[in-house]
Amino acid sequence: DTGVSQDPRHKITKRGQNVTFRCDPISEHNRLYWYRQTLGQGPEFLTYFQNEAQLEKSRLLSDRFSAERPKGSFSTLEIQRTEQGDSAMYLCASIKDGADGTQYFGPGTRLLVL
Amino acid sequence: AQTVTQSQPEMSVQEAETVTLSCTYDTSESDYYLFWYKQPPSRQMILVIRQEAYKQQNATENRFSVNFQKAAKSFSLKISDSQLGDAAMYFCAYRRSGGSNYKLTFGKGTLLTVNP
Known about the structure:
heterodimer, A: 114 residues, mainly beta, 11 strands, B: 116 residues, four-stranded antiparallel β-sheet, globular
């Protein structure tokens, strides 16, 4: 078990470009969460999946954001037409139903929009 | 909506000493979970300790213990015999017990510095 992994770890892009992040959860975990963490703040919930179904999206997730988990394994988070306000750390976490409820976090993808 | 407040943006402690990080929360729920997560610089967030609200006994994990005061909605973390490796950002987090979304609500964090 290698833990939750995220790719890339860092991304620098220009305003208006599209970016996509990937998260690979712990293999037997069926729930996957995305959070956003800005400087000086704690992580904030964006969206989550139970298996391949996206069940809830935060108001923070504007129409420019889309997330998928096509086969209930890895997930992608895409941001279209990036804005400087999108600069943040994007964290992924996974959890197994029926376990002790602990969320296991990945190392995050740090996005900088110039 | 639930909120989590960490009133200490920064704390420092001498190596081998004890430090307590504060956390208060607001919820109308009677059953929930509380967590302390540690985020070292440029490394991933890891769970330090968790507490179920229905349990009166305070959780402990080696050098880490909590003081859970349900009526006061307070959940402080005590680190004993502080080590240099304890230096990190510490986040207090809340999660509802019921419902289908296990999302965490975090405080803004406390940056802990450990002085040798």
